[in-house]
Each structure stands twice: as structure tokens, then as C-alpha cells.
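User: Predict the complex.
Assistant: Input components as received:
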Amino acid sequence: MSFSRRQFLTSTAAASAASLIGFQGASAAEPIPIASLLDLSGGLDIYGKPMIDTMTLAVEEINAAGGLLGRPLKLISYDTQSSMQLYTQFAQQAALKDKVAVAHGGITSASREVVRPVFDRFKTLYFYNVQYEGGVCDRGQFETGVTPAQTVEKLVPHAMKKWGKKVYVVAADYNYGQITSQWVKKYVTENGGAVDAIEYFPLDVTNFSSTIAKIQAAKPDFVWSALVGGAHISFYRQWAAAGMNKSIPMASTTFAVGNEQIVLSPNECNGMLVCYNYFESVKNPENTAFLERFHKRFGADYPNVTELAMGTYQGVKLWAEGVKKAGSIDRMKVIEALETGISIKAPSGTVTIDPPTHHCVLDVHIAEVKDKKLLLVEDFPQQKPSDTAAVCNLIKNPNDNQQYVIKI
Amino acid sequence: MSGRDLLGLVVAGAAGLAVLILTPIYFELDTVLNLTVYMIMAVLALSLALVWGFGGILCFGQSAFFGLGAYTYAIAIINMGESTAPLLLSILVPALFAAALGYFIFYGRISDVYLGVITLTVTLILFNSINSTAGPEFHIGAARLGGFNGIPGIPPLNWPLQKDKPVDLQGMFYLSTASLIVVYFGLRALLASRFGHIIVGIRENERRAELLGYDPRAYKLATFVIGAALAGYAGCLFANWGAFVSPTIFGLAQSAQIIIWVIVGGRGALIGPILGCIGIQWLTAALGANAPTGAGGFAAVLGNAPLVLGAILIAFVLLVPKGLAPTLADLTGQRMRAR
Amino acid sequence: MDLAALLGVQVLYAIASLALISLGLAIIFGMMKVINLAHGEFLMLGGYAAIEANRFGLNIWIAILVVAPIVVGAIGVVVERTIIRWLYGRIIDTMLATWGLSLFLVGLTTAIFGNTTVGLSAPLGSFEIGRYRMSAYTLFVIAVAVAALAGVLAALRYTRAGLIARGTMQNGAMAAALGVNPGRVYAVTFGVGAAITGLAGAVLAPVSGVFPSIGGAYVAKSFITVIGGGAAIVTGTTSASILFGAINQLATYATTPVFGEVALLGAAVVLIRVLPQGITGRFFRRSL
């Protein structure tokens, strides 16, 4: 009888797994499988959930327009549950079992570096659609997120002009935070300023009281935050609770990526400056139409569409354009098509692939946090990924395959 | 050894060999790769089955040795280039660490929950320490520790002393499955020996064993070290399978997982933890694959991995109280060998 | 001088928050020997209860001090009656069941609340110590911790319910023979432990934020504090919190938060080695 219970459990799990496959309607032509590998549960799901939603919308839009090459797209979504082991397992599964035409996914740089070799080995096209520290040089992969040369380089002088030359940096203690803080230091020094100190915090730290005391003692003109994740939101809370947000302003290229401006009260974060590719307040016809479609699909009360969610949407659309141009889903043909410099009119503006680096040329804006919204302050159209371009040229060296740690 | 037990061993051996030989022939590479990691985790589960199931030592930090093995292999092979020494080191370093920690614990007469808390604390210390080594100044020789990002791109094992013949993907499967079979039969032999009977006796009643002249501290220490060596070896294989290692390997989630496998499988059994480990791993992956997109209602609930897994575990505890192996054994009417 | 005062307040705050998150677990583990791996999730639920109550318009103090404990206490009673009660005496099985419960609660909360929740901002503003500014809310947290510890002590020492609870904890069979219903005592005790944990989660919500997976950060520390404290509930929790909280905060100030954590963990290892039964195994032996 217990044996039959184990059988019951196993068959229930199998049945539920099976029932989730192929939820798309039946179609005459054979579907093109594409995969997403995102954290939809666990600590990083604040980033993953909006990304899968925009990806779902993108796939549905493409299918509604007749699919690609006469075939509908089939989205296979993997929930990596914030676990590196599952990233590896699902990457292998997507490449070998589902034999997907393209995989979109990975959130932290750590997860990207785990799946990149897997996709390279099994020759699956891979798109990484999240902002990161720059330097990946891999012909089998495309990056659609912003890099420090596109955002940090613009925000630092703007903030210094507005507030002053003494900066205190607080950063997440991993690859991204370490490298971004070095870029901040470089641009601050280049603009005639000085960094008081850089402090690093692993992703699960919630106790910032002594850091806040140290910042108070140092008296900087503004604080730069490269903090990441749910636990680090407590820094902003404790900062505001100590009344510091009224006296020392803050700039960041990570704030608002997890919709922190909605989680915190306006009192706690008004006046912060951020810099990204996409904001809901970007004014152009594509964005208006996109938001209308998005809210119709996911509800009018959906919180802000984040930078990462739009990056994913744009990544899928770019890939679709590549397939159309190549007339095939064969990996090499699509890569070559994309390398002709394919461009789309996206809700964030024009997004073009930069052939030597496989990164994107994008519009970038500086925005200020005000009453849970992000209002545009300054615009920088069509920024090139110059930091990666300095070390990576896939046209000259097509077999290059690594992440360069860019010398700052 | 009774006829029944011999039959059990033969069945286990035959099943193991069948999986080893037939899987790459009949199944796709994807299944082979998934099974590889399940085999590796099963070795890890066996290490705790020995230490806790038979030794009675509630080690809540078995992941510490697993992680030490993985990191040692990664750092050693990046520095040395050839894999024989790193493989041996990945077994030796956790064993030495366990010897030191075990001496600290057992000769201090610490047991039960307190021991569990100390081992948990140790693995958390390792987690916190390695998690904050992201800066470039943290490196051992040529290998950067990498902090939260871990160490990606770890070179694979190669055939002993032949640097240019790396073990390929199929080879990894053979190695992992063969390791599991060897470890399983090795532990069976160990537990059937005098040593095995003594540690079970110590688990049952430590004072009585001591009064009979056996030093429980030494035996517990030995068990602890053997378990750590096995966990370290599993760590080395894991670093090979994924070609990466990250600090989460030391975290609470990983250490709790190992405990869960042994509980589900049944303490005092070896096959049970293997099945429990593979079952839960498979279930977790199945719940994460094919997550429903944009759907609501029932489908969203089924795709909610923690929700479903949690409910299944609770139901399991209430409905299958003794664990898999004892329940299966009851069913087949077979007397459990090692209680 | 003002730095010393600032540091003093911060140390007191570290002790207070550690005591608050551990007290509920001390009650549950101390009284019933149940290893509740879902402890972090009770904290998380307390935070959500306060946030939701506040969102529906309730005054923030009532949300934190009244609604959260009641809600989580009720959940605790339900959990005890449906799951834990079948598993008394089976420590290992309660570990598995509560681990499954913790996963279940995380999944449930994510499904209901999603991942972007409005948080609670710390009320009470800030005050100055010399040239430093501190949040006045930290003083409130310290006050709540002291009140909770005193309250539990008083309840155990001076009330009949406390007496019954202590008696059942010492010898359940004897208490039953004397006419007490142990099942009811256990349910109420688990509920009280859960309620205090919910209160702690709610009190800390404005400081560290609330999201479904925040429980994992707390569960290890609270276990270490409870075990380090030893058998006595109030005295053990207090003494262990004082020791670990002070070490943690001072090390954090001297170096980095990570090293502060490592210092706390290292102190725990040394403590348990030196005092294998926890602090109250040797000192304050017969206290509550």
C-alpha cells in the first residue's frame, strides 16, 4: 500500500509535467522550440518573473503574425529556482532533448557563465538579455543588455555635476558589483573627483547599520549604489530610517531593476538617479503600443515593466528578425544574418546589433525616482558598447570564446 | 549472510551494471548527462547515510565536505593542469578537515542536536567566507576564488597521468555510475565487517559500547572522516560534471537537501538514500521544466516548484513514516539487514 | 564619545533582534523538542501580515503588534494540529515535515503576493547622537525585545498556564495523569511560539524588508542562538543573544558585515565546544 503511494506520487508528478508540455494550440506546421532559463522561484525571482512575461508576450505576438518561416514558436520555460545545478541541467536539456533553436536566459553573471559553455559545446544559439559588467566575447552568443560604458559613463558625470565630487560606493560583492565599482572609480577620477571608499556586501546581507555610520563619518557628496537583490533593499530602508536620504543623494545603475521604487515608499527613495535603456516613461509610438498590449495581456495593475523584462522582449524580437533574414533557424545562418547589423524599432528606441562584439547599440536615459515612477531627465541616443569593443572583435577573431576582464 | 541478503546484493549489482552499460546505448545524451549528476549526488547521499544512518552522527554540514572537495579539485587542476593529483587532493583535503573538526567535536563529547548545529555552523562559515572572495585579490595560485560567481570553466578529469586525454561526457557517466556501484558495495562490505557492527552498536547505545571496551570517539571520528572523503570525491565529480563550482554548494539549502534524501530514503539503509536522492532530484527538475507561461489558476499552482515539492514532502512524512527503504522492505517481506 | 554611544545602541539593537527572532523557536524547541525548519517562514509570514494589514488601512502599530502575532499564531495552531501532532517524539520526521512546510509556505506566499510587494517604511523618524544620525525605530525594536522576554518570563513564572506548560514540558505523562490535556498544551505552546515569531517578523519588516525567501537568512542564526543558549528558554535566549549579538555587531563595525557573520558563527562553535549543553547547561541552571 505504501508502494502504491510512491507510484501515485510518481505518476502524479509525471502527469502534471506532461500536462504542461505543449500548451500551445495545434498547428499544421511543426513548431520551432525556443527555451527560456530563468529564476521563477527562489531569491532571484523578482527579476525572473517579469522577464518570462515579456517573453511570453513576444512569442504570442510573433505567433499571431503567422510565426516564423510559416511555423509557430513553442516556448519552453525552465524555472531554474535560483540553483546553479538546475541551470546546468536545464541548459543541457534544452540543447540536447528539446533541441531548441535559441535559448534566452540567465540572470546573474554567474548563471550566464555556467550555461555559456554548455550552449557552446552543443551548438545552441544563446541570448543573454541582462545588463552586466561587459567583456563577453563569444560568437555563439548575443548580449542585449547595457554595459558600464553605456550607463555608468553617462551617469557619473551627470551626478557629479549635480551634487559634487566626493563619492562613496556600496556594491554587491560578486563579479558584477566588483567590476562596476571599478568603472565608477575610473569615471569619477577622470572627471576630477575622488572615491572615499568602496564597500562590498554579499547578496544576503541585511545589516547595514555600521556602513551607514561610516558613510556619515565620511560625509561624501553622494553615494553610488551597485547593490543587487531583495536583501539589499534593506540598505535603502535603513538609510532612509536614519534620515540620510534627506542629506546625501544617491545614484545607481542597479536600483529599480527589481522594482525597488515600488517596494519602497516615495519618502525613502525620491530623488535617486538611475540610468538604463528602457523606462515606461520613454515616449515613442512603439512603447505606447507595447504597454497597451502588455497591460491587456497581463492586467492593468501590473507593476512597472523592468529593464530586464524589456531586454528579454527585445532579444526575442532581434532573434526573430535574424531568422527572417536568414530564412532558416540554423544557428550559423542566423548568426551571420544577425552579424549584418540587424536593427529593430523597439519600445526603448532603435536597437541595433553591433557585429564585432555581438552586443547592442541602444538608447540610454537618465531618470529620477519620483513617487514610485521614473521620470526621464537626460537622453543619450544610440550608445555603443565601447567597453567590450575595446577588447573584443569577433569579425577579426571569430573563434574567440571568453569573458575578458576589461582592464580599467 | 542469508540467501535473501545475497539475492538482494546480486539484484543491486545487476541493476547497477545494467544502468551502467545500457543507458548510453538506449538513451539520448541529455538523459545520460542528467543521470550522471544523479549518480554523483547519490554518492553524496551515501556518504551521509553512512555517517548518520549507520553512525548516528547528525551531520548537518555534509555539504561542507562536498564543497571542499569541489573547490579543492577546481583550484588544484587550474594550478596543476593534470588531474591525478587534484582528484586525490579532493578526497584528502575534506578528510583532513573532517579529522580536525571531528576531533574537536567527538573528543569534546558533543552529540545530537549540538553536533548538528556545530556542523551547520561550520558549513555556513565556509559559505560566508568563500562568498565574499569576489575580488581579484582572492586567489590561490592561478585560480581566482571568484566569490559568489564561483569558478567557471573547470578543466575536466583526464585519464591518469595522461594530460591530453580528457574524460569525455560519456566517460563521466561511466565514471560516476561505476563510482556509485563501487561505493555502494564498499559500504556494504564495511558495514558487514567488525567496524560496521561496532559503529552501529555505538549508535544504538554509546555507553554500552564504551563499557564493552570500544572507544566511541575514535570510531565516530573514523566514520566521520570516511564520510567526508566520500563527500569530497562526490564534490570532485560534481565540479567535473558542471565544469563550475559556486559558494552555494556550502549553503543551507544544499546541506538540508542531503539530510532530506537520507530521511526520505530511510536511515539505516543504503539503497533507500540512493532512491530518495534520485527521486527528489528528478522531481525538482521535472517541476522546474516546462513551467507554464502566462497561465493562471491550476496550471500556475502545478508549476510552482516549491509549493508542490513542499506539499509532496509533507505528505510523504505523514504517509510513509519509515522512509522508502524500510517500507519497501516491509512490502517484500525481507528483513532489513542493518536495522 | 558619540561614536561609543552610537555603537552601544547598535550593539543593543543587534542583541535585541537576535533575541526576538530566537525566542519563538526557543519556546517551540525548548518545550516540545520540535526542530521547526519552517521558523524562517513564520517570520516572513509575520512581516507579510503586518504589511497587508497596513495596506488595508490599519494603523501601523496595530498591524505590527497585534495583527501579525495573531495571524501567525493562528497559522501555528493549524500547523500543529494538522502536521506536527502526528510526529511528536520523532525529531527527524518533524525536520522533514517542517522543511517541506517551509518550501510550501514560500511557494504559497509567492503565488499569492507575487514578488513585488509594497513594504513598510520605518516610522518614528531619526534622532541625533552627536554627529551621527540613527533611526529611532531601533529603540522601538529594543523595547519590544525586552518586553517580549519579560512577558514570556512572567507568563511562565507567575501564571497558571505557564505552570501547566512547564509541567507538561518536564513530564508529559505525569501532567496527563494530573488531569492536563497534553495535546492542547502543545497546540497552545506551538501557537504562542509562532505568534512571538510572527511579532518578530513584523517588527523587523521595516528594517530588512519582506520577500518570500527572506526566511533562509534567519533560520540558521536563530537555531544557533537557541542551541547555544541551552535548555532554559528565557535566560538561555537572553544570554546567547547578548554574547552573539555583541560579537557580531562589534566585528561588523571593525571590519565588514561578512566578517561579523563569520565571527558570530565562530563564537557559536567555540561556545558549544566549551559548554556542550549550551550556556544554561552550566550557568543559571535552574532558571526559566
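Residues 45-64 of chain A form the longest helix (20 residues).
Let me know if you want any component modeled separately.
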